[in-house]
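Minutes, project check-in
Item: structure for the 118-residue chain
Input as provided by the requester:
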Amino acid sequence: VQLQAFGGGLVQAGGSLRLSCAASGRIFSINVMGWYRQAPGKQRELVASITSGTSTNYADSVKGRFTISRDNAKNTVYLQMSSLKPEDTAVYYCHARQSVGIQPIHYWGQGTQVTVSS
């Protein structure tokens, strides 16, 4: 499975960005896709995730500002980010979890930089 992320960039505080991530390859049984982020000097943290049944989960810090969605036909997950804050600055990583056996397999995209200026 390959994950290709798009859409990072530089935006002013209060602005919006949309990230997208397309999965390709042996994509059967991918039941969860999502986004993590890692700021300098900090651990990677979950931003939002969505199941194949479109159940969503958000970090408290982004609730009400970010929206995750998924197009199963295109094997693509989106993250609409609004009301961005400088503390949202990080490298954002697309993630997919594939359940094909006893243990799930985790895949990561290459990361895309999001920088929010104050």
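Outcome recorded: The longest strand covers residues 30-38.
No further action items on this chain.
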